[in-house]
Design a protein that fits this description.
By secondary structure, the protein is of the alpha/beta class. It contains 9 helices and 8 strands. Strand 5 and strand 6 form a beta hairpin. It binds adenosine-5'-diphosphate (2 copies) and zinc ion.
């Protein structure tokens, strides 16, 4: 059931690849009616559609590096101004650089929105390789699964939509994950200090059980967005 007391919340989920941003964002969507905005999903859709931005992003993503701020900001702005985001948004995988964080501040200001919280999902690097290497998603509804940590209740059938088609990301391999973790530590982790300085940072231990982490996040959402 959706809790309806949350109004125009803007939440950021910060964390390395595999931290659980997508998994938790989808749970918050269901619970609070917020809309998940994943720049990774938006970029993969642009790659699949073969747009100019998608063509430029493809090789960068395959190498595990960050796509240019200009491309990412353009696709995020387009999506953020669609009407369904009025109930509030969870930014999953954005911002990832100081320039993106500053652009987001301006965008929120111009839309009359304020940041509820920037939530840092705290995990250790060793576990991330295992999480990312075993990740797959439903090809129909996008629900996320893991070979070991989150399997469908009926083998080969999506819990959410009943589809039997699943897919794996091209960049979820051990070599690319190393580059992605490095990009996270060099370019994204400094944002933890940026949001701490604004008094917006919340830290969540993201090493444990998926449902326990979800409860910690729900408590933050209720607190900042009620
Ligand atoms: P992860 O599960 O590793 O957090 P995402 O789906 O968020 O992955 O992102 C996949 C890839 O898309 C990244 O490795 C990067 O190349 C690109 N990407 C996604 N979001 C951004 C962003 N905000 N800025 C730059 N590149 C991004
Ligand atoms: P991100 O969006 O941060 O890259 P995902 O939400 O896609 O991360 O999670 C990465 C993988 O780890 C997925 O296969 C997911 O099912 C699994 N996973 C997510 N949270 C946990 C957790 N707390 N413990 C174990 N595995 C998890
Ligand atoms: Zn599904």
């Amino acid at each position: 059931m959706t809790e309806t007391s949350v109004k125009s919340a803007v939440l950021i989920l910060l964390g390395p690849p595999g931290a659980g941003k997508g998994t938790q964002a989808r749970m918050l969507e269901e619970q609070f009616g917020l809309v998940q905005l994943s720049t990774g999903d938006l970029l993969r859709a642009a790659v699949a559609a073969g747009t100019e931005a998608g063509k430029q992003a493809k090789t960068v993503m395959e190498a595990g590096a960050l796509v240019s701020d200009d491309i990412v900001l353009a696709i995020l702005r387009d999506r953020m101004t669609e009407p369904d985001t009025k109930a509030g948004i969870i930014l999953d995988g954005f911002p990832r650089t100081a320039k993106q964080a500053e652009a987001l501040d301006k965008l929120l200001e111009s839309e009359g929105l304020s940041l509820g919280a920037a939530i840092s999902l705290e995990v250790d690097d060793a576990a991330m390789i295992e999480r990312v290497s075993g990740r797959y998603t439903c090809a129909n509804c996008g629900e996320g699964y893991h070979d070991t940590f989150k399997t469908p209740s009926v083998d080969g059938v999506c819990d959410k939509c009943g589809s039997t088609e699943f897919k794996r990301r091209a960049d979820d391999n051990a070599e690319t994950v190393g580059a992605r973790l490095e990009a996270y530590h060099q370019q994204t982790a400094p944002l933890i200090t940026y949001y701490a300085g604004k008094g917006a940072l919340r830290r969540v231990d993201a090493m444990g059980d998926i449902n326990r982490i979800a409860e910690d996040l729900a408590a933050i959402v209720r607190e900042v967005a009620a």
